[in-house]
Structures are given as C-alpha cells and as structure tokens.
From TrEMBL:
Source species taxonomy: Bacteria, Bacillati, Actinomycetota, Actinomycetes, Kitasatosporales
Composition skew (Pro residues), residue ranges: 12-25
Name assigned to this protein: ABC transporter ATP-binding protein
Keywords: ATP-binding, Nucleotide-binding
Keyword Nucleotide-binding belongs to the record: yes
Species of origin: Streptomyces coacervatus
Length: 277
C-alpha cells in the first residue's frame, strides 16, 4: 500500500529534476602552498590565492618578483611546481585545459613572413587539426574584429608596428574562445593611446565573453584598470584585493602608494620576527 506523507490523498508531485543545489563553479585559479624552484632559487614561496572567474585580475610587482613564473605554472609550462594549483577546476597542465586557456608570452609569437590571416589560419589548424579551412573563416573574422585588425588581415606580420603585432598575438590567444586568458605584460613598450585601447579591449572581452583575464604588469597605474589585484614581491603575494579595498586598508591614494605601504609593513614584520628569535 502506498503511504502518502503530508496528509494529501494523491501521489506526491514529481520531484524537481535535480534537488541538489548546482555545484559552485570552481574559481579560474586556486593556489594553495604553491612553490616553484628555478635553478638554485625558490622563485615562488608557498602562494595561497584564488582568481575569480569573469573578471580582470592584475598581477603586479617589480621586475623579477616571479610574475612570468607564476603565469607559466598556471598555463602548465613550468617545471618543479609543488603544492596545489587548480585551473578551471582541473590540475594545472591537464591536457583538457589546453583549449580552455589562451596564453600570450612577453615576446609576440607570430610569424613575420606570414600575413595576419595566415598566422591565424596556421594556429587554428594546430588547435583544431583536420578541420577544413573554410570552417575557421568565421572565427578568424571574429578575432580580427575583436582586436581591431580587420583592415590589416592581409598585411605581412613583419610589416606591422609593435602594438599591431601584440594584437595579432592576442588574436591567436582568442582563437577557440578560451575561458581563461593569461597575458604576460601585454602593454609593455606601447604608447599611452595603444595601452588605453588594449585595456578597453580587455574589458570588452571580459564583459562580452565572460572570460577571465589574468594580466601581468610592472606599471602600477595599470592596477587601477583591474577588478582585482594580486600584488607580488620577491616570490610572495603581498595583497589579494580590489584596488579600492587596497587603497582604503592602507590609507593610500593610489595603488602604487598602497604597494609601497605593504612593502614597508612586510619589512617591519620581518625585522620584528628576526629580533624576537
Ligand atoms: N631559467 C631560470 N633559471 C633560474 N632562475 C630563473 C630562470 N628564469 C627566471 N629566473 C629567476 O626567477 C625570478 C623570477 O623571474 P620571472 O621572470 O618570473 O619574474 P617577472 O616578475 O616576470 O619579471 P619581469 O617583470 O622582469 O618579466 C627572477 O629572479 C629570475 O632571475
């Protein structure tokens, strides 16, 4: 005999298809005790941080503090990585991440003797081997529009300006609509107008595609353009916060002043630790 609880006379209504709450989406990056050794040096020392999805996180710190090393670890090209490093819910370097991450290194990786479109054709063929070129056309047109290079599609990459070549590299990274874009100092050496245009492009990529961008820079004024910041120094994370919160917590007017405040604070804490030994 059926036993209906709650006093109703009929059978219970069908349960919802899934009563379990949706699993929270893993952050774009989760690091726990992340340590990297390069040659004789410990370059990253036990980093703990997360990078949320759908936002622009700036990775800022002086030259040599370990920004590129951290990015290499995130994209899975760095050896001697210890601790936990999860990217989009999978361990860094997992083969399924290859098409989900776009990476632009400091040196634009484009072939000078190919046109912009030929470069994109070539990299698309690597990303999706075996697909006929006609299938890629729409996507290549889309990334050319994204980086505003449609009118230079048939120019030889070797004849482009530095800023245009950087944008070709970015277009290559955008192929396949990756969920995470890792950009290593993409604005270095560019004039202020190009830098502004690139930052506008980064914001439009985050807003229209919902992509996560991790962008390194050693120019502190670029910090103000990020949703969140990871401030690094000598292989450690000094702060992980929004630009507003950083300024407020340190009583500083600019992120640069906040950074210097945190450096001084860390030095004082280290001295105190030393004298209490
Ligand atoms: N192949 C290597 N072997 C040993 N040490 C290395 C190697 N490559 C880099 N390093 C060291 O690791 C540290 C971090 O370098 P990394 O390139 O990550 O810094 P960065 O913050 O990206 O610097 P920049 O802003 O100048 O690009 C530096 O002190 C550097 O000397």
């Amino acid at each position: 005999m059926m036993n209906y609880e709650n006093g109703s006379s009929g059978p219970p209504a069908d349960p919802p298809v899934s009563q379990a709450p949706p699993a929270p989406q893993a952050p774009a990056v989760r690091a726990d005790g992340l340590t990297v050794i390069r040659g004789p040096r410990t370059v990253l020392r036990g980093l703990d941080f997360t990078v949320p999805r759908g936002q622009i996180t700036g990775l800022l710190g002086p030259s040599g503090c370990g920004k590129s090393t951290l990015m290499r670890a995130i994209v899975g090209t760095q050896a001697k990585v210890a601790g936990t490093l999860e990217i989009l819910g999978s361990p860094a370097g997992h083969p399924t991440l290859r098409t989900r991450i776009g990476y632009v290194t400091q040196a634009p990786s484009v072939y000078d003797d190919l046109t912009v479109r030929q470069n994109l054709d070539y990299f698309t063929a690597i990303l999706a081997p075996g697909r006929p070129a006609s299938d890629h056309r729409h996507e290549i047109d889309r990334v050319l529009t994204d980086v505003d290079l449609t009118s230079h599609a048939d120019a030889l990459a070797g004849n482009l300006s530095g800023g245009q070549r950087s944008r070709v590299s970015l277009a290559v990274a955008l192929l396949g609509a990756p969920e995470l874009l890792v950009l290593d100092e993409p604005t270095v050496g560019l004039d202020p107008v190009l830098r502004r245009d690139l930052w506008n492009l980064f914001h439009s990529i985050a807003a229209t595609r919902g992509a996560t961008l991790l962008i390194s820079s050693h120019v502190m004024d670029e910090a103000e353009r990020c949703h969140r910041l990871l401030l690094m120094r000598e292989g450690e994370i000094l702060a992980d916060d929004t630009p507003d919160a950083l300024r407020t917590h340190t009583g500083s007017e600019t992120v640069e002043a906040a950074f210097l405040h945190l450096v001084d604070e860390a030095a004082t804490a280290a001295r105190e630790k030393e004298t209490t030994r």
